[in-house]
Structure formats: C-alpha cells, structure tokens
Specification:
Blueprint: H1 5-15, E1 27-31, H2 34-47, E2 53-57, H3 61-69, E3 76-79, E4 103-106, H4 114-125, E5 132-133, H5 136-151, H6 160-173
Parallel strand pairs: 1-2, 3-4, 4-5
Helix pairs in contact: 1-2
Length: about 170
C-alpha cells in the first residue's frame, strides 16, 4: 500500500530477474494518487520484469481492505503509505483480514503504528501466525547510507558496528 519511492524500490528489487525463483508471482500496489501509480508503472516498464505488476487506485482504507482480501496465503503486505508516521492512522480498517501466513511490514518506525497493531491482531486470529515487522531496521539502513554518502565515511550494513549504531539510535528514539 503506497506507491512512493520506497514502494518503487521494494517492488523493483523483488521482481528482478536475477533473483531467479525467489520472486513473487505478482506484485499489487495500491495508492489513491494515480500519478504515483503511473510513476511506479513507468519504472517497471522501463526496467523490465516478467513479474506482473498491478497498479490499483484505491479510495481510502476500504479499498485497501478489498485488495488485501484477494491476496493469497503467505503474501507480503507492506504499509509504504506513511500513515502511522507522517499522519495518524492506517491504510486499512480494523475489519481488514490478512491472508494466512502473511508477512506484514510497516515501513514506519515511529508514531502510533496502527497498521502494526492490526497485523498483530490478525496474526492471533489466523491459523498460521504471521511475522510482523516495523520499519526500524529499514530506517537504519537508509539513515546510515545517507550519512555514509554525505560524510564520506564507511558504515557497515551488518555486524557489531551496525548493531551498535542501531542501539544508539534506539536510545535517541525514545
């Protein structure tokens, strides 16, 4: 849900042919802004993929609920809207039903994170518990890449030094 820069990057990465069989059967992206959907479509058309990418305009949370209801078991469900961080709320209603064994990923890392609460509650109701991830590590990777580039310093993307940076950032997060 959401067709901005993060959704473009994630959908592009997941559909790359060099990933072989480790790709989704299809990608469905929703957004109320048709221009953002068109921009995402252009990226996929220009870079090419054999994975179908469906761009669906939605009008609010009810529209996202309807798309979510048609996803299959094990779907990756991503909140890339900013709702929960940049504005209150969630792109889903509380009535939304996550597919069995879905993986829920909220790219947001601060705020009320209502989407995470909804995904956790849905996991309690399904037959297969679903993993739920917030956007903290995603934020850390983006933040450290920008700092490394701006200050021309080497910052690892994993390991003890990266974990220490994450710990320090988490202290500032509180």
């Amino acid at each position: 849900m959401g067709a901005g820069g993060s959704a473009i990057a994630i959908s592009w990465y997941l559909t790359r042919p060099e990933r072989g069989v480790d790709r989704p059967r299809r990608v469905v992206v929703t957004d109320p802004d048709r221009d953002r959907l068109a921009a995402l479509r252009r990226v996929h058309d220009e870079l090419g993929t054999d994975v179908p990418v469906e761009c669906r305009p939605v009008d609010g949370a009810d529209g996202n609920d309807a798309v979510l209801a048609r996803l299959g078991p094990g779907a990756l469900v991503v909140n890339a809207t900013g709702l929960g961080k940049d504005a209150p709320g969630s792109p889903l209603t509380d009535a939304a039903r996550f597919p069995d064994a879905a993986v829920a990923w909220d790219l947001n890392y601060r705020g009320e994170l209502v989407f995470l609460d909804q995904a956790r509650a849905a996991g309690d109701e399904t037959t297969a518990q679903q993993p739920v991830h917030d956007g903290w590590e995603y934020f850390l990777h983006g933040w450290t890449r920008v700092i490394a580039e701006v200050f021309d310093v080497e910052i690892p993307t994993s390991g003890p030094r990266f974990e220490e940076l994450g710990r320090l950032a988490a202290e500032a997060r509180r």
